[in-house]
């Protein structure tokens, strides 16, 4: 949480590859959106960015 908004970073342990990371990210999209809605309300700030980080393939995916 920063003065200009919130960045969400959710760490995932799913076993994925770079080829399957998008489909894995889609499975988690709703969860990240719920986090964004809740944090925005709690802190009364905008969401700057939402990310999923997949440990298994060292991949940072931006949720649009």
Give a short synopsis of this structure.
With 64 residues, the chain is of the alpha+beta class. It has one helix and three strands, in the order βαββ.
How would you portray this structure in words?
With 64 residues, the chain is an alpha+beta fold. The protein is built from one helix and three strands, in the order E-H-E-E. A three-stranded mixed β-sheet has the order 1-2-3, covered by helices on one side. Strand 1, helix 1 (21-43) and strand 2 (47-54) form a beta-alpha-beta unit. The longest helix is centred in the middle third of the chain and has 23 residues, at 21-43. The radius of gyration is 12 Å and the shape is elongated. The two termini are 19 Å apart. The mean pLDDT is 96.
Compressed to H and E, one letter per element, the order equals EHEE
Low-pLDDT residue spans? none
Beta fraction: 25-35%
- From the N-terminal CA to the C-terminal CA, the straight-line distance is 19 Å
Work out the helix count: 1
Strand adjacency order, main sheet? 1-2-3
Mean pLDDT: 96
Helix-residue proportion:
25-40%
Tally of DSSP β-strands: 3
Compute the CA-based radius of gyration.
12 Å
Tell me the overall shape. Answer: elongated
**What structural class do the secondary elements suggest?**
alpha+beta
Q: How would you sum up the major sheet?
A: 3 strands, mixed
Which key phrases capture this entry?
alpha+beta; single chain
Helices and strands, with pairings:
Elements: E1 6-12, H1 21-43, E2 47-54, E3 59-62
Parallel strand pairs: 1-2
Antiparallel strand pairs: 2-3
């Amino acid at each position: 949480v920063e003065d200009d908004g919130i960045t969400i970073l959710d760490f995932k342990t799913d076993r994925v590859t770079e080829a399957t990371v998008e489909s894995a990210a889609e499975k988690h999209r709703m969860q990240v959106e719920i986090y964004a809605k809740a944090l925005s309300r709690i802190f009364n700030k905008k969401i700057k960015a939402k990310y999923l980080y997949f440990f298994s393939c060292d991949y940072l995916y931006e949720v649009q």
